[in-house]
Structure formats: structure tokens, C-alpha cells
Amino acid sequence: MKPVILAGGSGSRLWPKSRAALPKQFLALTSEHTMLQETVSRLNGTDCENPIFICNEAHRFLVAEQLRVDNISHDGILLEPVGRNTAPAIALAALHATKNGEDPVLLVLAADHLIKNKPAFHEAIEKAELLAESGSLVTFGIVPDQPHTGYGYIKAGDTKGGGFEVAEFVEKPDLPTAEKYVSSGKYFWNSGMFMFKASRYIEELEKFNPEILSVCRKAIETEASDLDFIRVDADIFALCPDDSIDYAVMERTHNAAMIPLNADWSDVGSWSSLWETSEKDTRGNVVVGDAILEGVNNSYVNAEQRLIAVIGLDNVVVVETKDAIMVAHKEQVQNIKKVVNRLKKEKRPEFEFHREVFRPWGSYDAIDSGQRFQVKRIKVKPGEKLSVQMHHHRAEHWVVVAGTAKVTLGENTVLLTENESTYIPIGEVHSLENPGKITLELIEVQSGTYLGEDDIVRFSDRYGRTKKEEDKQ
Fold it and tell me: Of 47-51, 313-317, 460-464, where does mean pLDDT reach its minimum?
């Protein structure tokens, strides 16, 4: 069995924690580990091979770093040049997994789900594997504990192996319909997790959506390795139709089967669902971080940077980050997406980035700014190096506060330690490297007429970032 972990998606419903550049699968929302790391760790104890990860270009270093931190072995990080939904993504994984004549059973998992009952999850996997080996395309149906209107449903048909044949997939229902579904005992939530032999998925995709398979076959023929990453031709893959695995295959195949899963599952699709799955105090409140609550009931409060005081409110969600505070009624959290859409339309940075932005070499935190100046706190991991670059519109002062900096200015290279500084004039080619064993921290003061992140001309970069990526990385 080979896991295929889908790590795409924006997670906009968990703003302001989740941003376009740091979506929920890369956040630690339910434990000290990120949701991606939790997804991998819950496979411990199963008989599986190293997983394949699928993500978009912009998140590739996030995936690689989180796997590195947890010492997670893998069989590659497949990069989607453009988003084309789950059917093409899984097709790339299936074609990649069979390229050497092998035909593994693929366990397709989302990187942003919560599953608390690991033994029940493992038991469901064992049952699903038997069905998948016999040629079925298996989905996992969540045993519902309420008439939820936010999920699609799967109707169970005749028994099959340790599960059921799929009678039909149904769209998200209204509340009266959801109540009928749950009371009947025949309907399960559609989890978006699957298991099938790679060859069987390819066969069914060719039968029901040959255009997707044709493009993916052409794309996978161009695959090339780059560090931890597996790249395919962007122009070819861009021609692929956009479709989910549900619409492209699962709702059309005659070989769909379902294994019921009762394992305290959640897709953590909103702040209210995170409240539902979290441990609460005697008044039904969930508190993360530094908060004081007075006369508050059934609420979720998450403080990242500052003290939050909430008084006399019930059923609210309060989430604070370094650059934003979100307050909502629990029953209105779905409208966060409207706020995110406004941020995107108005091109505000809070749509895409946190104040602290992560890079493959470390991170920077924009701690202050004003007319013609900006102050950042920069952290560079041991052994890492920023690109060799220059700026047309800004000069920079660097002051080292911890660690050792190897600074190259033009033809000269110097080592700077704590309390030492240097100045980079406008137009000077320069680079920054951490040659030491501890994290390098420095304060950067920028001054100039334009301080945007796209004022970077890169001459060389060990992370393969190209000109068109400079404004994002």
C-alpha cells in the first residue's frame, strides 16, 4: 500500500490563521504538529510504503521542510504547475507509481483532516485494502453523528466484503433531507479519502474521462527530479480539464465500494468545527494562547501574539494573529470567505501572507514600516543561504542579534557576529548566509522609494526560484 497525500488547497475558511501562502494543512491547529505531519504520523503501525505527496509550486518548500523536521521519508513531492483538482492530481500519482511496472494499492488522503481514533482508522484501512486488491474503487464513508449540511453523502447499497457497494453519491443536502439521511442509517458523509489499485484508477479514468488521462500521461512523460521534487511540464499540464475524482470517476464507475469509518473524523472545515472537535472547559469554551474570559460560554478563542479579553459573549469565535483579529458568531463563520474575497479583491497582503513569511532558508517578520522605511526581523537556518541579489530602489542596514552572518558585498566577504552591522547600498550585489550551527537572527532596516518584495533581481539561487516567482518567494 502506498499513501498518496494531497497537500493542495487554500483553507480560506480558517482565516486569519490560514492564508494563501500558508494554508491550514501546514498549521498546527489540533496538536503541536502540523496537520500534514499528523496525517503521516497516523499511518504509523500500518504496512505501507513511503508516501507520495502532491502540492502546488508555491508550497513546495513548506512540504519539504515539514517532512524534514519530522524525519519523514517519502517517494517524492509531485508538483502541480497549476491547480486542476483531485482527478488529475491522483492520475499523476497513479502514473508515477506504475512507471516501473509496479501496481501498488494507493491510499489517497487529504493532508488537512483530523482523525482522533487511530485504531479504528487502521481497521478501516485493512478492510478497504482487501476490497481494493479485488478491483474495487473504495471510498471511506464517515458514520454521521448529526444531520450535517456541509458534506456530501454516500448511500450504502448491498454488503460487499467488509463494507458496502455504493448505491449513489448525493450532493450537500438541506437540513430536512440531511435529517432523513441520518435517521435512515443508510447514508454516510463523503470523506474524500479513497483506496484503489493504481491500475484500476487509470482504467476507470480512461473509460470515463480519457482527456484527463491523456494529458496526465503526456505530462508524466516529462517528469524530472529536482531536489525532493518531481516536476512535470507546465504547458502540457495546463491543458488538463479541471475535475474532482468524485465527478470524473467515483460517481460514474460501477465498481465503487465504501468502508464505514467511525474514528472521530473532521475535515476541520471551519472554526466552529475546530471548536466541536477540541477539548472544552466546564463552560464549553476552547482557549488557545493567552486569554481571559468573563461570562463567556461555548466559544473558541485563539490568541497568537497578545492577550485577548472576552466579556459577556456566547457562541463566538475570536482569532488573533500578528496582523489581524477576526471576531464572528459561531453560526456565521462560513462568511469568513466573504472577508477573504474582499482582501483578495483589494489586493491586501493579509489575503496571501502572514506578517511572518516563511522562505526555504528561514523566515522574515515585518515588525514596523512607515514612509520610505521598513524594519524586518530575519531568521536564517543553519547552513542556509539567501539568493545572490540586488535592489533598484532600496538600501539596507543589517544588524546581527544572534548567530553568525556570512555577508558578501560585491567582491568582498565578511563574517559578522552579535552586535555587528553592515550597510548595503542601492544597486550593490549581495548575499547572506548562515555558516554556523545555530539560527542566525538579524534586524534589517530598509530605506528607499519603493520597498516591495518584487524589487529583487536574483543572480543565483540554490532553491531554483525563477524570475517569475520572485514576487512570491
Answer: 460-464
Among 386, 391, 371, 389, which residue's Cα sits nearest to residue 440? 386
Cis amide prior to 241 (ω within 30 degrees): no
Sign of the torsion angle spanned by Cα atoms 147, 258, 272, 18: negative
Kindly list the distances between the CA atom of residue 335 and the CA atoms of 232, 257, 275, 324, 342, in Å, as whole numbers in the listed order.
36, 35, 17, 16, 11
Cell of 311: 466579556
What is the SS3 assignment for 210?
A: helix
- What is the separation of C-alpha 63 from the centre of its chain, rounded to a whole number of angstroms? 8
Q: What is the mean pLDDT of residues 268-289?
A: 95
What's the predicted TM-score (pTM) here? 0.88
Q: 261: helix, coil or strand?
A: strand
Q: Are 364 and 356 in contact (CB under 8 A)?
A: yes
User: What is the bridge-based pairing of β-strands 2-6 and 52-56?
Assistant: parallel
For residue 7, pLDDT over 80 is answered with yes
Helices and strands, counts by H and E, the chain: 12, 30
**Residue 124 near residue 164, CB atoms below 8 Å:** no
Grid cell locating 399:
544588524
The edge-to-edge listing of strands for the beta sheet with 325-329 is 286-288, 300-303, 316-320, 325-329
Residues 206 and 75: their CA atoms lie apart, in Å, by 25
Q: What percent of the chain has pLDDT over 90?
A: 90
Dihedral angle at the C-alpha atoms of 16, 17, 23, 28, nearest 10 degrees? Answer: -170
Whether residue 468 has pLDDT greater than 60? no
